[in-house]
Amino acid sequence: MASQSKLASGDLVAFVLGSPLLLSGATLLVVISVIRFLLTRPKKLDLPVVGANGKDQRQDLVEGTLKYPESPYIIPTAPALVILPISVIDEVRNLPENKASFMKDIRRSFSSRHTGVGNETGPELIQAVKIDLTRHIASTLDDLQDEIRYGFDKELGPCEDWTPIPLYHKITRIVALLSGRVFVGRPLSREEEWIQATVAYTFFCMEAKNAINAYPEYLRGIVAPFIKEVKSLKHFKKRGSDLMKPMLDAQGVKERNEKLLSGDNIDEQGTMISWIMKHSNENDRYDPLKLASNQMGLSMAAIHTTSMAITAAIYDLAANPEHIQPLRDEIQQVIDEDGQDVDGDGFMKLKKSSLPKLWKLDSFLKESQRFTPPGLPANVRVTTAPLTLSTGHTLPTGTRFGFSAWAIHNSPFTSQFAPVPATASTPTHIPAPPSTFDGFRYYKLREIPGNENKHQFVTTSPESLNFGHGNHACPGRFFASNEIKVVLIELLRSWEFRFKGDVGGKGGAGLRPENWFGDMTCTPNTMAEMEFRRRKLI
């Protein structure tokens, strides 16, 4: 992708050089960009550097954290990342944006001035997710369960016998259907063009980021309009807006808004839109483009991370098939205890009160996320004012910092891996070492009296950072957790699955597609196929 963009930019450069007027304008832009870069770059930090700017920096994080457990060090990414000791997390985890900014780092990473990623969402979206989506978690569970059977039937097909399936591709479409059901409602959520637009927008967010970041910063403003990935990104964003506009017009935006503000119930269609509208200022409340921009930004965040987590979990189930039957038994046990609800089509659904009882499933997801996290560091921010730490160090304005989540989640010195002495009611608990995949690791920890509400998938703490920690912990993690669990419950109850060629379904770590590491991120293999067939229940 990047090489094709550079080829196109070569033609652009030749054209510019042949036009004195354009050459003068381009030269001025370069000069301005260079001056801006020199003025805004952070000051050099007098801190130790660990590792090199490589593709896989897991070992660098482990080494640096062992060597400098109580002081900051630098991982030489581009730009550099200061890793802080976990002892100072309470000093920084709740800092406001005018001290340390999460969005500034997102906008830098995605070159938002040129791609628009990070600019499309406003505070109204964050409020809608934090307040309304979280408050309505129980009611959205019905929508997710209604949609999941349709999603599997549509995307996996009959599968009466073992059928090869491109896993990640199909999971993104299933997640798009589930998210869309809550975010925009039917019928739009099931329209093929909407599914394609939201999935493609998610894909091109990452492609545009990589393509434009292949150029020096001072050239990006010149080449951005000509990079095909950036153009594709903007196309799908505009297409999403076009698809939403008739729905908004048909429902009467102003009338729906007046009902919303008066507290009247809103129908299924456009649930998330109504919440966003409630938190929007009056000028934006009726703007289809603004609402669509929020929706596309929300879809990017929801589809990308959720699809990655589900893909990794399915790989881990196939690699560790000894977990499958206990998970199926747990689901059945909860159904036997609680019963089931029946929807309008006669399909059985878990009750809202049943999902929190699936401790083994929750534990499996947490362990899967430990091995395939969304990123190697956590709580990454950029200082927007000088930041003085209790370690005696001051981080200048413009410094990127974060915490070594990978090292923490794999450290044998954290409490989740420490033996728990026997009590009168429980035997000594000796957890498996960090290098061993134990899907029921956190289930066993929660069985210890006093731990019942700890070590959950969505829990954040200084020892559990994959969803962040503090005021920038992922606000959508409760919805994402339910969404992931609904997918895996349907998979476990109604489907069989295995790696291609694993005829006996014995699994093994050697068959699992390897994760991809780069730019301090971790991604499950998005190209691998697996084999699926419907379970033949007697």
Describe this structure in words.
The structure is a single chain. With 538 residues, the chain is of the alpha+beta class. It folds into two domains: 2-40; 110-375 and 415-462 and 466-534, Cytochrome p450 (Orthogonal Bundle), CATH 1.10.630.10. Helices cover 51% and strands 9% of the residues. The chain is built from 20 helices and 14 strands. The protein has a five-stranded mixed beta sheet with strand order 1-2-10-7-3. A three-stranded antiparallel beta sheet has the order 4-14-11. The chain has a two-stranded antiparallel ribbon with strand order 5-6. It is globular and about 65 Å long. 39% of the residues are buried.
Produce a short descriptive summary.
Pfam families: p450 (PF00067). This protein has helices spanning 2-17, 20-40, 58-67, 89-92, 102-109, 112-115, 123-135, 137-156, 167-183, 192-213, 217-223, 228-251, 253-261, 271-279, 288-319, 324-338, 359-371, 405-409, 441-447, 477-494, and strands at 73-75, 81-84, 100-101, 163-166, 340-342, 348-350, 378-383, 387-388, 394-395, 400-403, 495-499, 516-518, 521-523, 529-534.
